[in-house]
Amino acid sequence: MADEKQLQLVTFQLGDEVYGIDIMQVNEIQKVQEVRSIPNAPNYVEGIFNLRGQIIPIINLHKRFHLRRAVLSEEDKLLSGFLILNLDGMQLGVYIDKVSRVVTIDSGKVQPPPQMISGIGAEYIQGVTSEETGYLIILDIRRIFDPKELQQLGKIGKR
């Protein structure tokens, strides 16, 4: 259908699953670099990263959702890093096991999330769609952090 809305997603592997985030929320993809830890930060905050003079908090979604890291080949490890996201004007980074690709899907093919997917609660998932290689879980990145957490993370980025 020509009038069906299209979604463009940056897809990535986290643990055993493939996830997608709206491309409009992703500023860039960075290779893993040195992240400086922060004392007394929540356990899922890996630390801060200096991106061209801007201090960005780095979030570990593995710790946040109690996921195991993916077992990657040496070649796939080259695709590890973090996504730099833009949430309401604030930038933060999230670790990913492996970046996949950008995909375009019809929003009509997105189904509501099941109650529980690999440790990530349904409240954080915008929907699920199937692809040739399996399922793609679409994250609602705004729901992953409540407003208080975002405010706290914003303060970390200003340290």
Summarize this structure briefly:
The chain has 159 residues and is of the alpha+beta class.
Q: Could you outline the blueprint of secondary structure elements for this entry?
A:
Layout: E1 6-14, E2 17-22, E3 26-31, E4 45-51, E5 54-59, H1 61-65, H2 74-77, E6 81-87, E7 90-96, E8 98-106, E9 116-117, E10 120-121, E11 125-131, E12 134-139, H3 141-144, H4 147-157
Parallel strand pairs: 2-12, 5-7
Antiparallel strand pairs: 1-2, 1-8, 3-6, 4-5, 6-7, 9-10, 11-12
Structural class: alpha+beta
Largest sheet, described in full?
5 strands, mixed
The average pLDDT is 85
Strand order across the largest sheet = 8-1-2-12-11
Supply Rg. Answer: 16 Å
* N-to-C SSE string, H for helix and E for strand: EEEEEHHEEEEEEEHH
Strand percentage, roughly?
over 45%
Distance between the termini: 49 Å
Q: How many strand segments?
A: 12
Weakly predicted, low-confidence segments: none
Number of helices: 4
What report would you give on this structure?
It is a single chain. The protein has 159 residues and is an alpha+beta fold. It is built from four helices and twelve strands. Strands 8-1-2-12-11 form a five-stranded mixed beta sheet. Strand 9 and strand 10 form a beta hairpin. The chain starts with 5 loop residues before the first strand and ends with a helix.
